[in-house]
């Protein structure tokens, strides 16, 4: 979560919303959340906690799919 927020602060092309999934079960169902953390980039899912460099690579790869 920290890194997602940091990316949003650094770039005006990125927004980050943090959701407590137990408070929004309809979102958990919609996005089939089974584990946390889970990051969605333009409907592409990144599962689990990754090292920072791998997380950034995954976010960039997901963004390029759009």
Secondary-structure blueprint:
Elements: H1 2-10, H2 25-30, E1 38-41, E2 44-47, H3 52-64
Keywords:
66 residues; globular; two-stranded antiparallel ribbon; Glutaredoxin
Low-confidence stretches: none
Kindly provide the name of the CATH class. Alpha Beta
Strand content: 5-15%
Radius of gyration: 12 Å
**Structure annotation, total helices:** 3
Shape annotation: globular
Distance, first to last CA: 22 Å
Name given to the CATH homologous superfamily: Glutaredoxin
* Fraction of helical residues: 40-55%
Task: Please give the number of β-strands.
Answer: 2
Q: Quickly give the CATH architecture.
A: 3-Layer(aba) Sandwich
């Amino acid at each position: 979560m920290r890194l997602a927020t940091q990316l949003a602060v650094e770039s005006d092309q990125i927004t980050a919303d943090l959701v407590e999934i137990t408070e929004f079960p309809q979102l958990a169902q919609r996005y089939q959340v089974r584990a946390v953390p889970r990051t969605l980039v333009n409907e592409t899912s990144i599962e689990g906690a990754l090292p920072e460099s791998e997380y950034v690579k995954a976010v960039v790869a997901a963004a390029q799919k759009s």
